């Protein structure tokens, strides 16, 4: 472990020298790196498909949609907007400072560390890298060891396609991450769990390094059966997709649980079952359309959630698990105990509790009484309920009548609040995340007021 710190200290010194050389500040360098990312994703597409299938059992269509396609879109968006983002903006000044002018100049932060997660190993590594490069930084990436084929491909491909003097990958697990955290970076961008987020923030505090924490939480979906104008068929398809369709439920903004009116719960459960069957067939494991659970530890954790008192008896659909394939069926639970772990911890898997309430308005208080989620979803066209949900709950984002889709919008900031993290990125927010907006003021010598200078006397106060 010490050897890694010792070894990497030298690399960090070199990376800082590269940053200080000014190379990464050049627009031409930033563009060449963004183009390098585009080439990497085009030319290594089949390797990426294979790695995502190997580590996560992701179908290549899902892999393209969630990782390759979104990264290509984001890199193109950054390329198209780079000139605008890099340009300084004029700022107004008070009359008292006449004659003078001012502007805001974005400057890169320096050498930044990106620590990423395994569930979208390419997307969650490259989205921050795109922002860091666009903003002119030098980058060190530490991908997750839990997706080893993806981690190794990231390391090889980044070495082949990007400027290796300024963008480096360090592979490894918690020990390697902690070794890196003992060094001084100019920014740390972390995606992962709340528990490790605390470790990252504590380590960063020692150097007063700014951090962005992209964490998780329990994202609720409020399903309002009294909504007058909703398309149940589309809503059910989107709910099923929002739960099981992105990395088999192992997604930070995937639906964690549903809140609905008690009297409609049987209808909802019936509809959910119908659309699960429509989507994944009678044998979901054979559909190849649901990613596997990342590893045995998480598989056993999910199984354990189902085995707690009162939880097993609440299963109304699915529930079978296949350890050799690390696969758990899409599972629906009706009113599991609220004090069971399944309702207290982030599920991060294909288990979907449906919690019933007398009225749908109670959902606002239900959500407010719990830690702030990364996303809140509302399947309703009832504008009053929408307003109550927007103003009565706090979350990183709120989306009505769909799920997860907000992640792909370059114009929307993505990030958490409270326990789901802080700091935001995507599109120009990624550029801002890795920049400092420096206030630059220029004064002239034409006018000068004596009252601003000592020695002080009361006459100067009267002026
Ligand atoms: P994790 O916190 O276990 O690991 C994340 C990263 O931290 C990995 O690179 C890992 O190697 C490193 N790490 C693990 N233990 C460490 C330690 N003790 N010290 C230093 N570094 C350590 O999280 P995970 O299992 O990769 O991901 C699951 C969590 O991440 C969930 O809570 C999920 O909601 C969240 N997540 C959030 C987002 C988001 O965009 N907000 C995206 C994906 C996942």
UniProtKB/TrEMBL annotation:
InterPro entries: Ald_DH/histidinol_DH, Ald_DH_C, Ald_DH_N, Aldehyde_DH_dom, Aldehyde_DH_NAD(P). It catalyses: an aldehyde + NAD(+) + H2O = a carboxylate + NADH + 2 H(+). It comes from the Eukaryota. One of its GO terms (molecular function) is aldehyde dehydrogenase (NAD+) activity. SUPFAM superfamilies: ALDH-like. Residues 19-440 form the Aldehyde dehydrogenase domain. GO terms for biological process: aldehyde metabolic process; response to abscisic acid. The active site is at 214, 252. The keyword Oxidoreductase applies. It holds the Pfam family Aldedh. Keywords: NAD, Oxidoreductase. One of its GO terms (cellular component) is cytoplasm. Belongs to the aldehyde dehydrogenase family. This is Aldehyde dehydrogenase. It comes from Mikania micrantha (bitter vine). The lineage of its organism: Eukaryota, Viridiplantae, Streptophyta, Embryophyta, Tracheophyta.
């Amino acid at each position: 472990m010490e050897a890694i710190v010792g070894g990497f200290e030298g690399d960090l010194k070199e990376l800082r020298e590269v940053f200080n050389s000014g190379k990464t500040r050049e627009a031409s360098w930033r563009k060449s790196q963004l183009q390098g990312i585009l080439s990497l994703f085009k030319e290594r597409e089949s390797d990426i498909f294979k790695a995502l299938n190997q580590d996560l059992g992701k179908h290549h269509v899902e892999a393209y949609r969630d990782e390759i396609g979104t990264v290509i879109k984001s890199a193109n968006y950054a390329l198209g907007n780079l000139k605008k983002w890099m340009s300084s903006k004029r700022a107004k000044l008070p009359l008292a400072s006449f004659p003078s002018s001012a502007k805001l100049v974005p400057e890169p932060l320096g050498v930044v560390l990106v620590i990423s997660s395994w569930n979208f190993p390419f997307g969650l590594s490259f989205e921050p890298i795109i922002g860091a490069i666009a903003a002119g930084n030098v980058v060190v990436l530490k991908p997750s060891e839990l997706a080893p084929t993806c981690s190794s491909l990231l390391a090889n491909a980044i070495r082949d396609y990007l400027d290796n003097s300024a963008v480096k990958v360090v592979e490894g697990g918690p020990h390697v991450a902690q070794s890196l955290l003992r060094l001084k970076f100019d920014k740390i961008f972390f995606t992962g769990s709340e528990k490790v987020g605390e470790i990252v923030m504590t380590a960063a505090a020692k150097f007063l390094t700014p951090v962005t924490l992209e964490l998780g939480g329990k994202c609720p979906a409020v399903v309002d059966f009294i909504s007058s104008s909703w398309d149940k068929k589309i809503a059910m398809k989107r709910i099923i997709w929002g739960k099981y369709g992105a990395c088999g439920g192992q997604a930070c903004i995937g639906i964690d649980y549903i809140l609905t009116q008690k009297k409609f719960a049987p209808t909802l459960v019936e509809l959910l079952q119908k659309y699960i069957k429509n989507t994944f067939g009678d044998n979901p494991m054979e559909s190849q359309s649901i990613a596997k659970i990342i590893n045995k530890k998480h598989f056993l954790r999910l199984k354990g959630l189902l085995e707690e008192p009162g939880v097993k008896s609440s299963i109304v659909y699915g529930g079978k698990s296949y350890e050799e394939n690390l696969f758990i069926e899409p599972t629906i639970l009706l009113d599991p105990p609220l004090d069971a772990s399944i309702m207290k911890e982030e599920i991060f898997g294909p288990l979907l509790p449906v919690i019933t309430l007398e009225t749908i308005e109670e959902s606002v208080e239900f959500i407010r009484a719990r830690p702030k989620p990364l996303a809140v979803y509302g399947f309703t066209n009832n504008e009053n309920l929408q307003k109550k949900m927007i103003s009565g709950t706090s979350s990183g984002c709120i989306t009505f009548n769909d799920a997860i889709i907000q992640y792909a919008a370059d114009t929307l900031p993505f990030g958490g609040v409270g326990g789901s993290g802080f700091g935001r990125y995507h599109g120009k927010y990624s550029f801002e995340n890795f920049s400092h907006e420096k206030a630059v003021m220029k004064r002239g010598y034409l006018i000068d007021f004596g009252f601003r200078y000592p020695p002080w006397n009361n006459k100067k106060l009267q002026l």
